[in-house]
Design goal:
Layout (H helix, E strand, L loop, with lengths): L1 H11 L6 E5 L5 E4 L10 H6 L3 E4 L7 E3 L2 E9 L9 H18 L5 E2 L24 E3 L2 E11 L2 E9 L16 H12 L5 H5 L9 H12 L10 H13 L4 H4 L3
Parallel strand pairs: 2-3
Antiparallel strand pairs: 1-5, 2-4, 5-9, 6-7, 7-8, 8-9
């Protein structure tokens, strides 16, 4: 999360090109949306599973990052991918995500329902209900995304579950009792899925990187070049990792 914010700050200053970052998490980590309360989290159970907890700069609800491909786009509001309103750039990125899934032989849908049309919008889990222009398969949410804008900079995060039990996140959230937890798991199983469930085979992280890059190259005519962080970005990321994303003041806000 600190690296993504460092890239965002670099974009705000006009010191970097638009950036796509693809990564995974080790160990698994529960991330909360920027405004989400830490009271949603069962911290003891999360610790028992040896999963970390962090708060994202982007919005949305809780995501358990495990056995997944995570993407982030950072750039300037004047960059073609991010121009105009948030919802327009969200749709552009969604179209790239659809092409990515097509390359994996998946034919998904883009959810067109507005938040006001949705049910259970107060649930703590991101994958509980698809937001407008998120990616679904046979009505089940397949990719979760959230965008943040700061000054003239844009950051969009996305989570693509590859395999494993999609309901594991219920083990690190707070419920009135185990019956409620079980009901939440059952509900989520019916509303979200992994690439493994769709394809009936395990999809490894390494199998997704090039298709993801290729999809956005083709869909939006983007030419990517591989690069590491600049010295300034690396220094800022290291500082943010300690002062912000490693602090209870940020991560455990109520």
């Amino acid at each position: 999360m600190a690296v993504d914010e460092a890239l965002l700050q670099s974009a705000i200053r006009g010191e970097s090109l638009p950036t796509l970052r693809l990564y995974s998490w080790q160990p698994g980590c529960l991330s909360l949306g920027r405004a989400q309360s830490i009271q949603d989290v069962d911290k003891e159970s999360t610790q028992d599973h040896r999963w970390d907890i962090v708060r994202r700069l982007s919005g949305g609800r809780a995501i358990l990052h495990i056995d997944e491909l995570t993407y982030s786009f950072t750039g300037n509001v004047n960059d073609p991918l991010f121009q105009n309103e948030i919802i327009e750039s969200y749709l552009r990125i969604a179209r790239g995500l659809v092409r990515f899934l097509n390359l994996l032989e998946i034919t998904p849908d883009i959810n067109h329902s507005r938040p006001a049309d949705q049910i259970h919008s107060t649930e703590p889990i991101c994958f509980e209900v698809p937001s407008q222009y998120e990616i679904t398969y046979l009505g089940k949410k397949l990719i979760g995304s959230a965008q943040a804008r700061k000054e003239n900079g844009v950051l969009q995060h996305g989570s693509i579950p590859l395999f494993g039990d999609i309901t594991r996140i219920t083990q690190c959230l707070r419920y009135e009792d185990e019956t409620k937890r079980g009901q939440a798991a059952q509900r989520m199983h019916g509303r979200a899925c992994t690439l493994e469930e769709v394809l009936s085979r395990k999809v490894e992280l390494a199998d997704t990187i090039q298709p993801f890059i290729q999809a956005f190259q083709v869909e939006h005519g983007i030419s990517f070049m591989e690069s590491g962080l600049t010295g300034e970005e690396k220094s800022l990321a290291e500082s943010l990792a300690v002062s912000k994303y490693g602090s209870s003041e940020w991560n455990e806000r109520i």
